[in-house]
């Protein structure tokens, strides 16, 4: 599946690090500022949101992800009520996960997912219990569609493999033109997405994209990175779409809306919606509005 950043022609993420897992309050959080965008230049005092926190720039900055104490000041949690997850805690139990994916590939483990979540503490952990479960269901429904029920680790159509190299990028495709095909739970693809994800995760995925299909922890983290930080062809991250009650349809738009939404492929959209309905029912929460795109 094609994955696109919001500004394909702009500079992409440069070297950066994920923020440490920070202590967060169980009190009501402030409203989230505009989401941080890597290509955007921010002056001192500018406030952005990233991974469920608001951050204030200490001085002019560009391509430096919030979480770096030398550049950003943490203003605290935003967008609802966030409580720190206990190790391994997830609103989806392991038994429910197994019900969702009875034929899953052993590569995709529940423990691998919950471990990866420590790098993104706001995931399925922002807002009310209903919103947390809706976000978890939305993520897993899209994952279900992308991987055929957590069965496929790599994109099945090998004819597509050479198409995911944007040679116009200054860093090119050092792993080879056919190396940046879809991998992992969200089927991360394109050289610029591997570069951006690797920079954010502190892993050289541009030169070694195969880690996403060989290392389960990296695979889950790549999916959560996209879910939490990327608008794709949409106007917001899938995380923001769910915690701000914009609807499951907006997550589809952010993941593959350029090909599926606005009548592009209604069958694919419905497949995602069907999984979301099934998973929200299993978790005992309503689906919310705006299911399609």
Description:
With 293 residues, the chain is mostly helical. The protein folds into two domains: 1-11 and 82-285, Orthogonal Bundle (Lysozyme), CATH 1.10.530; 41-77, Seminal Fluid Protein  PDC-109 (Domain B), CATH 2.10.10.20. The chain is 34% helix and 6% strand. It has nine helices and five strands. It has helices at 94-100, 110-116, 129-147, 191-201, 211-214, 216-229, 238-243, 248-260, 266-283; strands spanning 41-42, 47-50, 53-57, 61-62, 72-77. The strands form two sheets. Strands 2-3-5 form a three-stranded antiparallel beta sheet, with no helix packed on it. β2 (47-50) and β3 (53-57) form a beta hairpin. α4 (191-201) crosses α6 (216-229). The chain is globular, with a radius of gyration of 18 Å. The two termini are 17 Å apart. The relative contact order is 0.15. Disulfide bonds join 165-173, 261-293. The active site is at residue 146.
The CATH topology of the largest domain comes to Lysozyme
Helical proportion, percent range = 25-40%
Specify the number of helices: 9
On the 0-100 scale, what is the average pLDDT?
84
Number of strands: 5
Number of domains: 2
Main β sheet profile: 3 strands, antiparallel
C-alpha termini separation? 17 Å
| Percent of residues in beta strands | 5-15%
CATH class of the largest domain: Mainly Alpha
Dominant shape: globular
User: How would you write the strand order of the largest sheet?
Assistant: 2-3-5
Structural class: mainly alpha
State the CATH architecture of the largest domain. Answer: Orthogonal Bundle
Order of helices and strands: EEEEEHHHHHHHHH
Spans where pLDDT lies below 50 across 5 or more residues: 1-29, 81-88
Protein name: Chitinase
Disulfide bonds: 165-173, 261-293
Keywords: Disulfide bond, Hydrolase, Plant defense, Signal
Signal peptide: 1-29
């Amino acid at each position: 599946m094609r994955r696109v950043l919001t500004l394909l022609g702009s500079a992409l993420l440069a070297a950066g690090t994920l923020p440490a897992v920070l202590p967060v309050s169980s009190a009501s959080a402030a409203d989230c500022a505009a989401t941080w965008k890597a290509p955007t230049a921010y002056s001192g005092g500018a406030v952005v949101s990233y991974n469920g926190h608001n951050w204030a720039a200490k001085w002019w900055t560009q391509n430096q992800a919030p979480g770096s104490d030398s550049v950003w000041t943490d203003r605290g949690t935003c967008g609802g009520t966030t409580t720190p997850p206990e190790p391994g805690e997830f609103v989806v139990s392991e038994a429910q996960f197994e019900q969702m994916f009875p034929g899953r590939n052993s590569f995709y483990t529940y423990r691998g997912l919950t471990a990866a979540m420590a790098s993104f503490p706001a995931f399925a952990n922002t807002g009310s219990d209903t919103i947390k479960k809706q976000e978890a269901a939305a993520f897993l429904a899209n994952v279900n569609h992308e991987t055929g029920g957590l069965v496929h680790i790599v994109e099945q159509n090998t004819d597509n493999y050479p198409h995911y190299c944007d040679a116009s990028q200054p860093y090119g495709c050092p792993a080879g033109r056919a190396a940046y095909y879809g991998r992992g739970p969200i089927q991360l693809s394109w050289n610029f997405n591997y570069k951006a994800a690797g920079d954010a995760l502190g892993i050289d995925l541009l030169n070694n994209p195969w880690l996403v299909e060989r290392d389960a922890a990296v695979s889950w983290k790549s999916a959560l990175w996209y879910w939490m930080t990327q608008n794709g062809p949409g106007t917001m991250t899938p995380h923001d779409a769910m915690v701000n009650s914009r609807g499951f349809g907006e997550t589809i738009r952010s993941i593959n809306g350029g090909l599926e939404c606005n009548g592009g492929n209604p069958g694919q959209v419905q497949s995602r919606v069907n999984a979301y309905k099934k998973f929200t029912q299993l978790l005992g929460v309503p689906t919310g509005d705006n299911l399609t795109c």
